[in-house]
Amino acid sequence: MAPMRLKLICCEIYFREVCRLVSESAHTIDLAFTPKGLHDLGADKMPSAEHYATETNPVLGLRSIRYCLQNLTMFKAQLRAILRASRLGDIRIMFPLVSTLQELRQTRMILRDVMEDLDEDGVEYNPKVPIGIMIETPSAALTAAMLARNCDFFSVGTNDLIQYTLAVDRANEHVSSLYSAAEPALIRLLRSIIHDANKAKIGLSVCGEVASDPHYIMLLLGMGVRILSLAPPMIPEIKQVIRSVTIEECNHIARKVATMDSQRQIKNYLRDTAIKILPEAF
Amino acid sequence: MAPMRLKLICCEIYFREVCRLVSESAHTIDLAFTPKGLHDLGADKMPSAEHYATETNPVLGLRSIRYCLQNLTMFKAQLRAILRASRLGDIRIMFPLVSTLQELRQTRMILRDVMEDLDEDGVEYNPKVPIGIMIETPSAALTAAMLARNCDFFSVGTNDLIQYTLAVDRANEHVSSLYSAAEPALIRLLRSIIHDANKAKIGLSVCGEVASDPHYIMLLLGMGVRILSLAPPMIPEIKQVIRSVTIEECNHIARKVATMDSQRQIKNYLRDTAIKILPEAF
Q1: How far apart are CA A83 and CA A174, in angstroms?
Q2: What is the pLDDT of residues A142-161, one digit of tens each?
């Protein structure tokens, strides 16, 4: 089994703490621009941030990598901190909410700038630190083949991807019943992202609630997903599911789901299959 | 040339006015749930509507068909009015913001209910009134093949489609520079919607700012679009562009754009091509 990965947030002022964690930890650490991090100013996070007050639809607003690219001093300080930590362990950098190849190129250019600054200052770092992106907008999903040729790994952020694909704010009680991972459109997008990542031979993981939902695990495995980003309390349950099924069973489930045309049908099928294959777990 | 189409909004109280317009008009009339209509409560329209006050992201909230499906008394009154008008002219019904096949099926079921009510009341209507939907969420675009088998025409709402695909609120000055129709992801979605509509042999039109932008007309024609929903002041200019180019030129442009990987490249190419082919118009 691959070593467990931890995700950490990081900026210059946390540098000492990050170094301690990296050097003491037995685990691989994704020192990442995570959804929980300062760098991924999700619309539902830090609502007190100054510009949010003026945004009518913060979920479609200035957040995550967009915020970073418009606040270069802060962004460069964070990149510098991650790069300095990168010589101490298995560090990788992941950028959130990248929607277009242009944005990824711009981000990589800034990263190169910061590397050059470190070179000039004689500061050590890992020049081959792997660079990944979150795939969480339909736009990124639809251009995954191009993006995959320009980075080292994908992390599919299903929560946001579902939200944008269906145009449904999952935090809005008036429409949250429309929010579902079992939508044919989402299954089709996921399938195409996985295909593009495999074709470009880059890593892919899935995060978001779907990855921690036992009903979806067999489907994800059947679609080719092999790395899941889990909520820690769910690890034992998901492990149990994975150990109880064969890949052939999962492949069969994925093939069946691909033929279905409604959320209700997919949801019922996944529930029934889960109960049939794993009566003790559900 | 096909007769010019007008779009009207309609509800029971406007019934007399609608009948007058339909019977007096020389034009075909799409008596539609249009983006400008009461029925398509766009997030940027009628911001005083009660529930909007509680929505953090109205663009991803309770609007358009979602609002109708949760307010059946109002919705049925509107459908009844449109159906009553349908025996007077070339009336069609178009539902906005349909995101899933399930939603379309639910909507059609309610329409059948209203038709049965009219039958019982002995009120005349056209039982074959054509039913169409707006394709304006990535979800609808990705499942267009399934949706096309369940309706008579598509109207591609590019403004919202771009917005959701890129996760960019075009009314937000902090990110509006990221909003563009020239994104490879959008071109790919458009191509696939057009393909699915053609395969199912249903009509397709394109509305939104793109349809009124001379730079995009040749691309749209080359991708197979033949009906455009225009802002009236743009009709002479767009007519001029269409009359000045051949379909072969347009096809060539569409093939070229399909190979491009960035918004900047596509935008520059469309601008340069427009100037080259139509120096007098640009």
Answers
A1: 44
A2: 999 999 999 999 999 999 99
B227: left (phi > 0), else alpha (psi -120 to 50), else beta?
beta
Which residues of chain A lie closer than 8 angstroms to B163, CB-CB?
A: 60
- DSSP assignment of B172-214 equals -TTTGGG--TT-HHHHHHHHHHHHHHHHTT-EEEEESGGGG-H
Cβ of B167 within 8 Å of Cβ of A263? The answer is: no
Residue B132 CB neighbour total at 10 angstroms: 22
CB contacts, 8 Å: A99 with chain B: 166-168, 178
- Give A86: exposed, middle or buried? Use CB within 10 Å, 0-12, 13-18, 19+: buried
Q: Do B100 and A167 touch (CB under 8 A)?
A: no
CA distance B71 to chain A (A): 12
Q: Tell me the C-alpha distance between A237 and A234, whole Å.
A: 6
ipTM (interface predicted TM): 0.86
Tell me how close the Cα of B226 comes to any Cα of chain A, in angstroms: 25
- A164-174 pLDDT, tens per residue? 999 999 999 99
For A262, which of B62, B102, B184 is closest by C-beta distance? B102
| Whether pTM exceeds 0.95 | no
H helix or E strand, kind and range, residue A112 = helix A101-121
Cβ pair B244, B193 in contact under 8 A: no
Output DSSP code: residue A149. T
- Spatial neighbors of B272 by CB under 8 A, at least 6 apart, are none
3-state helix, strand, coil in chain B (%, to 5): 55, 10, 35
Give the nearest partner residue to A62 out of B101, B164, B174, using CB atoms.
B174
3-state secondary structure A241-278: HHHHCCHHHHHHHHHHHHCCCCHHHHHHHHHHHHHHHC
- The answer to whether A135 contacts chain B (CB < 8 Å) is no
Judged by DSSP in three states, A225 sits in coil
Distance CA B213, CA B217 (A): 7
A-B contacts (CB, under 8 Å): 177
Listed in sequence order, the residues at least 6 apart from B97 whose beta carbon sits closer than 8 Å to its beta carbon are A167, B40, B63, B64, B65, B66, B134, B136, B137, B160
Helix (H, G, I), strand (E, B) or coil at A61: coil
